[in-house]
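Local shape tokens

___
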Amino acid sequence: MKQFIRVMKALSDPNRVRMIKILEKKELCVCELQKLIGLAQSTVSKHLKVLEEAGLVDFHKEGAWIIYHLTNGEESRYAGVMLANIREWLGDDTILQDMIGRLPQVDRERSCAA
């Protein structure tokens, strides 16, 4: 029951669902997600932590960057089922379409330079 509730709570926030939809297209770091979604870096990081704890996203390091990607859903059957379903959903969301449309312009070197 705990894992089910964790997944459902993680998916109850529109920004977290948008992050999942964006990560379907490409692995990204926090800075890149921040540019696309328009939230503070700390907020994006908190959202990613919730998604990670629910078994929906994972990360790996590339040099100085931590790169987030969707999990394969094997660790949590609830996460796996929801990720599979979400792939088919929300194609008509205009905000999401805009974010995905801007994805090619997001550049890690420029986005993360501070």
Q: What stands out?
A: The mean pLDDT is 93. The CA atoms of residues 36 and 105 lie 10 Å apart.
